[in-house]
Amino acid sequence: MKTLSDYMKMAYRMEIVEDKEEGGYVVSYPDLPGCITCGETIEDAVVNAVDAKKAWIEAALEEGIEIHEPDNLEHYSGQFKLRIPRSLHRSLAEHSKREGISMNQYCVYLLSKNDAVYSK
């Protein structure tokens, strides 16, 4: 069985979001449901997040709640196949050619641009 120390050494992903209404920053750990804190500055929020993570794990261990290990990028290959209409394929190929990059690079650009818009 893993100990508090074991879990504290794991690299859990931290999400930091600016709180535009109240001011400061809100921090959460997606892999630790309900583990959330805040701080007036990013630095304060990160320090508070480490304390919150420790308190969350301690409580979970005491209560026998399952603690998930951090999500790992090794689970993702970075590749997926996608079937698209021929007309879209042609359009993507033409745009990428105009930009002087591969269609793969152009599609990655479009996906990352949209992901940035939707993650706000």
From TrEMBL:
<protein>
    <submittedName>
        <fullName>Toxin-antitoxin system HicB family antitoxin</fullName>
    </submittedName>
</protein>
<dbReference type="InterPro" id="IPR010985">
    <property type="entry name" value="Ribbon_hlx_hlx"/>
</dbReference>
<dbReference type="InterPro" id="IPR035069">
    <property type="entry name" value="TTHA1013/TTHA0281-like"/>
</dbReference>
<dbReference type="InterPro" id="IPR051404">
    <property type="entry name" value="TA_system_antitoxin"/>
</dbReference>
<feature type="domain" description="HicB-like antitoxin of toxin-antitoxin system">
    <location>
        <begin position="16"/>
        <end position="78"/>
    </location>
</feature>
<dbReference type="GO" id="GO:0006355">
    <property type="term" value="P:regulation of DNA-templated transcription"/>
</dbReference>
<dbReference type="InterPro" id="IPR013321">
    <property type="entry name" value="Arc_rbn_hlx_hlx"/>
</dbReference>
<dbReference type="InterPro" id="IPR031807">
    <property type="entry name" value="HicB-like"/>
</dbReference>
<dbReference type="Pfam" id="PF15919">
    <property type="entry name" value="HicB_lk_antitox"/>
</dbReference>
